[in-house]
């Protein structure tokens, strides 16, 4: 019986943890790859998207990558600006741009492939469910 309570507690903790999105927190980094090396941080319950901003500002003279937790609605609203602001200038070194990318998988940094899934959370939930099924089977005497 103690084992059953333990497995249920672990399964509930996993569901709560897997439900929270984790975004990499990056500010003013030079490359997307550099941002991908930063550890993911837990987003709040209301933040269901990671927002990536890739921009070039002529005054600073470099491209920057920023990534942080956001709401999906805000992310979509700024992503709508891409048709106006996301033009990398086709080789013009003084052309300023800002591109906004939204994603909703743990640790993602846009642009990402559509439909990517968080396999880690899926596998943890699957393992917890399998362990619970085995314990229930053993408790029932099958």
What's the structural blueprint in terms of helices and strands?
Elements: H1 2-19, E1 22-24, E2 26-29, H2 32-36, E3 40-42, E4 49-57, E5 62-70, H3 72-79, H4 82-85, E6 97-103, H5 119-140
Antiparallel strand pairs: 1-3, 2-5, 4-5, 4-6
Helix pairs in contact: 1-5
Structural commentary:
- The chain is built from five helices and six strands; from the N terminus they run αββαβββααβα.
- It is α+β, with helices and mostly antiparallel strands.
- The radius of gyration is 21 Å and the shape is elongated.
- The protein has helices at residues 2-19, 32-36, 72-79, 82-85, 119-140, and strands at 22-24, 26-29, 40-42, 49-57, 62-70, 97-103.
- Residues 113-123 have low confidence and may be disordered.
- The strands form two sheets. It has a four-stranded antiparallel beta sheet with strand order 2-5-4-6. Strands 1-3 form a two-stranded antiparallel sheet.
- The two termini are 15 Å apart.
- α1 runs antiparallel to α5 (119-140).
- Helix content is 40%, strand content 25%.
Could you give a short description of this structure?
40% of the residues lie in helices and 25% in strands.
Share of helix, binned: 40-55%
What is the tally of helical segments? Answer: 5
Q: How can the largest sheet be summarized?
A: 4 strands, antiparallel
How confident overall, as mean pLDDT?
Answer: 78
**Could you spell the SSE succession in H and E letters?**
HEEHEEEHHEH
Structure class? alpha+beta
Q: Hey, roughly how much beta strand do the residues contain?
A: 15-25%
Query: Whole-number radius of gyration?
Result: 21 Å
Shape: elongated
Low-confidence stretches: 113-123
**Total number of strands:** 6
Strand order of the largest sheet: 2-5-4-6
Oligomer: single chain
How far apart are the termini? 15 Å
InterPro entries: Snake_toxin-like_sf (IPR045860)
Keywords: Signal
């Amino acid at each position: 019986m103690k084992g059953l309570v333990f497995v249920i507690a672990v399964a509930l903790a996993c569901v709560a943890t897997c439900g929270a999105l984790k975004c990499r927190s990056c500010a003013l980094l030079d490359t997307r790859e550099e941002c991908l090396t930063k550890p993911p941080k837990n987003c709040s319950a209301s933040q269901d998207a990671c927002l990536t901003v890739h921009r070039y500002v002529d005054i600073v003279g470099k491209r920057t990558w920023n990534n942080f937790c956001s709401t999906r609605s805000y992310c979509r609203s700024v992503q709508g600006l891409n048709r106006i602001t996301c033009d990398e200038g086709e080789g013009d070194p003084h052309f300023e741009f800002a591109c906004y990318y939204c994603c909703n998988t743990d640790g993602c940094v846009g642009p990402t492939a559509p439909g990517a899934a968080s396999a880690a959370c899926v596998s943890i939930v699957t393992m917890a469910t399998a362990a619970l099924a085995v314990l229930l089977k053993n408790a029932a005497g099958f």
